[in-house]
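Complex record, two chains
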Amino acid sequence: KQEVTQIPAALSVPEGENLVLNCSFTDSAIYNLQWFRQDPGKGLTSLLLIQSSQREQTSGRLNASLDKSSGRSTLYIAASQPGDSATYLCAVRRDRDDKIIFGKGTRLHILP
Amino acid sequence: GAVVSQHPSRVICKSGTSVKIECRSLDFQATTMFWYRQFPKQSLMLMATSNEGSKATYEQGVEKDKFLINHASLTLSTLTVTSAHPEDSSFYICSARQGGHEQYFGPGTRLTVT
C-alpha cells in the first residue's frame, strides 16, 4: 500500500529565505508525482507535476525534483514571500488509471 | 488548465436531513471523478471513485449507503450525504479526470451539520 509522508509538518521561515519541503513515498512504482498548494478553506492549486520519467520540473520560483528509486521528492521555493504561506501537499499516482494518494502536507508560514 | 466547479460552496443543514453536492467538469469530459473529504488541518482522504455510467467504488470504511454518488454524465457527478449528522461536517472536494490525463480539483464544499 502506497504511503506518502511529508516532512516537516509545519515550517516558519523569514521572508526572502530559500526553503525545501520534503516528500517520501513507500512504493517507487509511480506514474507521476504532483505538488499542490492549499490556502485555508480553499481547494487545491496544482503547482508542479512530474511524470515518472522526469527528474524535475520548474515554474517560476518553484522547483520540484523526483528521485523514484529512493522514493523521494523535494519542492524548492526560492526567495520566499509572505504570499507563499499555505499548506503544500505532495501526491502520487500509481498508474495511469489509478487514484492519487496525498501526504498530510506541510503548513508553511513566511514571516514578513 | 481544465476547470472543475462545485456547488454549493457552503451548506448548512440540520441533523437528519440529506444534502447534495454537485461536481462539474466545465471544459472537458470527465470519464472518472473522485470525491475526497478533508477534516481541519488534515490531508485529503479519498472517499470514492466513480466512472461515468458505473457504480462508484468506495474506499474502505466509507459507508456507501450514507454517501451516495452518482456519475450519470461525463460532466456531472453528485455526492449526497444522507441522514447527515454533526460528525459529517467536513470539507468535501471533488476532482475529475479524462482518461489517464491530469486530475483537476474543484474548489470544495464546506458542509456544516447542526
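Note: The first strand of chain A starts at residue 4 and ends at 7.
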